[in-house]
Amino acid sequence: MKTFIKINTLLIACMAFIATSCNQGGDSSNGALSSNIAEKVYVAPGERDEQYAFLSGGYSGNLTVYGLPSGRMFKEIPVFSQFPTSGYGYSEETKPMLNTSFGFIPWDDLHHPDISQTNGELDGRWIFANGNNTPRIARISLSTFETEEIIEVPNSAGNHSSSFITENTEYVVAGTRFSVPVPQRDMPIKEYKENFKGALTFIAVEPEHGHLDIKFQLLMPGFNYDLSHPGRGKSHGWFFFSTYNTEEANTLLEVNASQNDKDFIAAVNWKKIEEYVNNGGGKKMPAKYAHNVYDESTHTATSTMKDEVLTVDPSEVPGAIYFLPTPKSPHGCDVDPSGQYIIGAGKLSADITVHSFDKMLAAIDAGNFDGDAYGIPIIKYEDVVAGTVQSGGLGPLHTEFDGKGNAYTTFFISSEVVKWKLETWEVVDRQPTFYSVGHLMIPGGNSRKPHGKYLVAMNKITKDRYLPTGPEMEHSAQIYDISGEKMQLLYDFPTHGEPHYAAGCDADLLMNNSKKIYRIDENMHPYAIKSPSEAKVVREGKDVHIYMSTIRSHFTPDNIEGVKVGDKVYFHITNHEQDFDVPHGFSMIGQGTSEILVMPGQTKTSLWEPKRVGVWPFYCTDFCSALHQEMQGYIRVSPANSNIELSWSLDE
Amino acid sequence: MKNNFIFSIGLCLVATLMMMCTPQQSEQAEDTTAAVETHPQGQASVVDDVSDKNILQVAIGSEPHSTLVAAVQAAQIEHVLVNAGPLTVFAPVNDAFDALPEGTVENLLKPENKSQLATILTRHAAPGSYDVDGLKREATKGRKLYMATGDYLEVVVEGDKITVGGAEVVATVPASNGVIHVVSSVILPK
Amino acid sequence: MKNASILMIVGSALLLGLFVFPMWNIRLGAPQYPEPLGIDIHINGLQGESEFDIQNIDGLNHYIGMKVLPKPDEMWEFSVFPKVVLSMAAIGILIGALGLLGKISSVWFLAWFVIMGILGALGIYDFNLWLVDYGSDLDPNAILKLVNPDGTPMVYNPPLIGHKKLLNFDAFSYPRLGGIMLGIGMLFSLIAFFIGRKATLKAN
Q1: Closest Cα of chain B to A429: distance in Å?
Q2: How far, in Å, CA of C87 to CA of C112, rounded?
């Protein structure tokens, strides 16, 4: 018996040895597998991504949050569009966010997100985004991932060369795409030339809370202002805007705005203009624009209509603005991490033009100009150009940087990303995109310190990349690994809406500041209740205010009588949960708005205008708990002339 | 007890066989470039028989343009011709290529001359959509046509005859992503 | 005897740690709570490990009919225990000081240890009674009424010490710094007794 045990032990030991040695074999083959592409984007269940990517939603009006390298979508943040998923733009608290001088505008075209910076590096406090159609700039908190502020931009139209920030987030800049009559007036379109103006708006960002205030508007010649980027490092204090349609055409721009051999990049010394304005410069002009601020403590937005804006005529601040000739309708206008190079991607050109900040300053000092446009000096092309990248591609659009001396430019027509070296201007690598890439994004790629491990190419055309879903498909994006000399295509993923641009950062910058709950004891909403015992229903004429609370898994109160046809019933719902990821929803039958989703500790208000007599149910829309399906209530609606008293109860 | 012993040995053998790590080997066999190779062709390879034909598809379907198509493929610029555009392409017929000095086409089709060939072909494409009226308007306004290579070509209208960069437009075919003007000669750099 | 007395004073003083640090901790983890919910048991009341843990534990417990966790004024222990501990610490320090002055022998240290041990045992017994009551005295109208395979109603008391599976939750119950200081303090008093006795024997 003893021997048997011994032998058996030996056998088991032998098996264990084999098992271990095999595991080692497995490990070493894992080593070989580390070059496997699938492994580079695989984020195992429960593991988390290395980086955040914020992709604009274009015509969805919203901002989407993705993880890199997995390409998984985490969230859609409503910004300029009503969003039934959370009730944004439907709840009484958030309706004012979408107020404008044109009234309530439930939609916009969100283009260019940009993360706030300190000393030229991403600080992860806010992300800014522009509404293109009804010109607006939004500020989104990166602790709550909610839109906190929207300011309308007057005298602007097609707010496209926006919403880029200076390197200490002093300003968020909004440049107009369309030039328009300033102020707006009834005039023949044909008289565009010399009459229309292009407003470049500098919106001051208050350092502590990020509140926005238009500092000044620069009324530039009537070109189209396409994209812009701030100077950084040595060029801090300057801002660069690409222009097209320097022909000042007002029709068939496809042809008529493509005539000039060179358009301009406008170099704006904003520090100089700021000083001019601080010393009383500029002209106040009547202008109507909305300023909407969401207050986290009251969970409520307020909209204020402003009536005046400070404008600056470029001719009154000599030496503050120069034009840098740049071939063929430049789109991207990108500044490298050192602040020395300004890259203009002429979208009808085959080459990329790189201007030198130092050469620009030297040319200005020498005062040797190639004439002027509307009084703004034009620096000679030869005097400012540092080099051109003979790319061999067609349709360059946008450039970002990896912080290792390389630049990456998208080419729309030839559908590729081209990697090239700063200073030698030589092309190092090129990779196809699928298909027709617009913008690209390297996390931090638009700052002094890019976090350059991945590159996301955002394509305009999807065609056959995914299973077909009818004539319209989500746009496609590709992730490339750019840590090596050659770019490596890792992964395709569909995006939502139309991403025009994106911003990204390391996960560490945001994940630890992300809010889990709102504190109920800090809830300053005027209709909040701090305890279910405070629940009540109050009639003020036709308005009925229901102070309601939620906790797993019931509403307090859940039986309400005395509501009449023709009343306006406001459900003020306070979620008493103080537990991460336990929102409660609310929806009422026949309600002309969306449901609302109330975060822990938050109060939100939903309006219902009962039109029919009866007993009508409401329920929680979020699967909050095991007894979610029990989380419901009734409201009795009596005829308008009924004399039933208001009453409410829970479990009586 | 003896049975137990034999059973143990058997177990050990089974275990040894199982530990031969076959799954890892098969994973290793998958090449690292798999993700790219699954769809290496780019947009030109999209299969679509329903949509209006794009410039490349029109050219491929046109017998008199077989030399042009061969050249486009040799230069690997097919994707440009299927791009959303809009593009205006001046497409020389086979006779136009034949009219070039002997050996020119054969020489250009060699792989080492790929970029030279691409430049020559790209000079036949203009960003934007110019139909016949569009070309005439350019001529009337005295504007030259900006080509994708950065060259400017002169548009001349004499009666019904239109020439672009010296090449006569003999036919015009609309395509989904632009316009094809069939031209009688190859547009060479001045 | 000097060393023994100092050890006795230090040991008794360690009891005061209970007024600063929690004595015991119960932690509840589940897949949907990657950051577990925790209760720190202080000598004078319960506190959530994170701010809203108590509220969230009560919220979950109401489904199975458990009472809400007691506030300090709802349990006599939270007012009596501090007094007992404070008194024992004072007495311990006093006898340590008297020992230092040579007024009393180290037997007093042992006496203190024994009394402290009895009180501690009573405390643990009381704590266990409460745990059992808390976990088994359930609301008859509870939303979820679960029974064991043998048909008896399921109880939810967390373990006195160690780990226990409660439905989908893993409950862990362990002493925290205050409790550990108490244990070390008591150990010190015992060591003090032995050192003191050895010294006395040697001197004689």
Answers
A1: 15
A2: 11
- How far is it, in rounded angstroms, from Cα A128 to Cα A131? 10
Interface test mutation site (partner C, options A512, A580, A629, max chain C beta carbons within 10 A): A580
The reply to whether residue C52 touches residue A517, judged by beta carbons under 8 angstroms, is yes
Task: Enumerate residue ranges in chain B where pLDDT < 70.
Answer: 1-41, 190
Q: Which domains does chain A have, with CATH numbers?
A: 51-511 (2.130.10.10), 520-649 (2.60.40.420)
- How many Å apart are CA A202 and CA A213, to the nearest integer? 9
Q: Which of B9, B19, B89, B136 to mutate to test the interface with A (most CBs of A within 10 A)?
A: B19
CB neighbour class for A406 (10 Å; exposed up to 12, middle 13-18, buried from 19): buried
pLDDT, position C141: 83
Encode pLDDT of B119-142 as tens digits. 888 889 998 899 999 999 988 988
d(CA C62, CA B21): 51
Please report the domains of chain B, with CATH numbers, ordered by start residue: 53-190 (2.30.180.10)
Residue A360: CB atoms within 10 Å: 23
Minimal CA–CA distance to A648: which of A592, A566, A586, A572?
Answer: A572
Angstrom distance (rounded) from CA B43 to CA A546: 58
Say if residue A443's pLDDT is above 90. Answer: yes
For the segment A372-386, what is each residue's pLDDT rounded down to a tens digit? 999 999 999 999 999
Tell me the DSSP string of B13-53. Answer: HHHHHHTT-HHHHHHHHS-TTHHHHTSTT-GGG---SSSPP
In this predicted structure, the answer to whether residue C67 has a pLDDT above a threshold of 70 is yes
Write out the residue range of the structural domain in which residue C39 sits: 2-203
Average pLDDT of every residue of chain B: 79
pLDDT cut 70: percent of chain A above it: 95
pTM above 0.90, yes or no: no
C154 φ, ψ (degrees, to nearest 5): -75, 140
